[in-house]
Amino acid sequence: MKLTRAGEYAVRCVLYLASQGQGALVSRRLIADYFDIPASFLAKIAQQLAKVGLIDIRQGAKGGYVLLKNPADITMLEVVEAIIGEIALNDCVTSSDTCRNSNNCAVNRVWTKARNQLRATLAEVTFIDLLHEKSCFIFPQPQQIDISKAGNR
Amino acid sequence: MKLTRAGEYAVRCVLYLASQGQGALVSRRLIADYFDIPASFLAKIAQQLAKVGLIDIRQGAKGGYVLLKNPADITMLEVVEAIIGEIALNDCVTSSDTCRNSNNCAVNRVWTKARNQLRATLAEVTFIDLLHEKSCFIFPQPQQIDISKAGNR
DNA sequence: TCTATATAAGATTAAAAGTGTCCTATTTAA
DNA sequence: TTAAATAGGACACTTTTAATCTTATATAGA
């Protein structure tokens, strides 16, 4: 499991949304410009984030993305796996005759342990943690969320 | 970092050699057949293992591979990284303007921690450990190492 | 010394995954 | 009704991975 560019973009996207607070609407264009992500590529990524319920996508004029969960409840694991699928470190050369019972394999046990550790590490970091630590990103001050103008439904 | 097929093959190859003991010579064909690895692909992998000093490659008739180190001193990390290079979990979208000081990045710190953990886990497992645990592989009894016939130099 | 056996090393190919791009809908605010 | 914004599918390009093929080289043994 190497974090793909799409995964990296997803983390940044959620980080931006988190900086503006749960419920704030941010346009795709703004996020794409800020991080220099191709807008249509970001669209694909956002669709996956929406599929797992992390964000809401608003179509139409003044559309954009809205973070649905509290940043304190969103973990890095969640965002990463929304994009690249459940983390696995090896395939154990699946379907090979030499390794069909991988649950009884010393080598595989090591990979499983490593995988569990990795997932645990990513699961214990929330986006509030990421925002509070100083980082290489500087986000604009969150706008006051004006429910009437944001057009929630 | 997802373990590539080449990496998986390398682990198996070293595991086989370890089962026959340090200094034993095993032909490439034998290992390739045993694990169902394409012989020329195994050749490439073996060359990388030789480059880092793990094995010796004997050319010519009755050639093959010889494990140079004690299996108790060979770690999984060593073998894996010999093939796929030093483990990294993310690229942090290198050279992007938005992330040039990744050492001051909260997100990156998480990845660095995860990476270090992963490497530590792989580093604490030796090939003696792997051999002693029961596994999905059953290796032939190691031949008595006959120095005169094995043709060491 | 000759021959069969075995690997070396480099070039090439094939397949898969990742990273976008483009075009035509569809939705929504005003 | 129109302009702004995203959706969704098809397509293209790039990189990585996984092999394969060919020619060269080394070695054991007759």
Overall, the morphology of chain A is: elongated
Instruction: Give the class of chain A from helix and strand content and strand pairing.
Output: mainly alpha
Q: Which range best describes the helical content of chain A: under 10%, 10-25%, 25-40%, 40-55%, 55-70% or over 70%? A: 40-55%
Poorly predicted regions of chain A = 146-153
Oligomer: homodimer
The main β sheet of chain A shows up as: 3 strands, antiparallel
Proportion of beta-strand residues of chain A: 5-15%
Compact overview of the structure:
The structure is a homodimer of 153-residue chains. Chain A has 153 residues and is mainly alpha-helical.
Please tell me about this protein's structure.
Two copies of one chain form a homodimer. In chain A, strands 1-3-2 form a three-stranded antiparallel sheet. The first copy, chain A, contains seven helices and three strands, in the order H-E-H-H-E-E-H-H-H-H. Chain A has helices at residues 5-20, 28-35, 39-51, 76-84, 106-123, 127-132, 147-150, and strands spanning 25-26, 55-58, 64-67. In chain A, helix 1 crosses helix 3 and helix 1 packs across helix 4. The model of chain A is unreliable at 146-153 (pLDDT under 50). By secondary structure, chain A is mainly alpha-helical. The first copy, chain A, is 48% helix and 7% strand. The longest helix of chain A has 18 residues, at 106-123. Chains A and B meet through helix 1, helix 5 and helix 6 of A and helix 1, helix 5 and helix 6 of B. Chain B binds a DNA duplex (30 and 30 nucleotides) through helix 3.
